[in-house]
Amino acid sequence: MELGRILLVDDDVEEYLILNEAFTRLGAGDVLEYAEGGRQALELLNRQFAENGNIPELIVLDINMPALDGPATLALIRADMRFKNIPVVVYSTSINPNDLEKCKDLGPCSSILKPSSMDEIISVGEALLALCGTPV
Question: Phi-psi category of 56—alpha, beta or left, where left has phi over 0 and alpha has psi -120 to 50?
Fold first, then answer.
């Protein structure tokens, strides 16, 4: 199995299902991979890189996760030479300015508030696809 071009890291599988539906409607249903939290994301990145050198073109990272939150996950990603240059979008229901600053201090990243309607989710999907060079 190859890693999708976009890796969503979120502790809520519903977020994956909703975003994946948006990508499917946009004709890019095979682009999204899901990791349920920071630890699983790091395991997935390490395993896929070790197996075939494959890394995602974009990481979409939730801030508020148990065990290993967004800033801690991002710090570990940025500390690894193999993954430090992967673009990251912070994706959360409420982006605390302090949390966003913690993330930006670790390297360039963007932020998007999680949308509430399917039209907004599709717009977010279009923006994410554009960031990794996938035309819609």
Answer: beta
Residue recorded with tokens 């690894």? 80
User: Can you spell out the DSSP letters for 70-134?
Assistant: HHHHHHHHHHSTTTTTS-EEEEESS--HHHHHHHHHTS--EEEEPPSSHHHHHHHHHHHHHHTT-
66-90 pLDDT tens trace: 989 999 999 999 999 999 999 999 9
Closest CA to 49 of 89, 85, 3, 8: 3
Compute the distance between CA of residue 58 and CA of residue 108 in angstroms, rounded to an integer: 12
Three-state DSSP class for 13?
helix
Q: Tens of pLDDT along 92-134?
A: 887 677 777 777 777 778 888 888 899 999 999 999 988 886 5
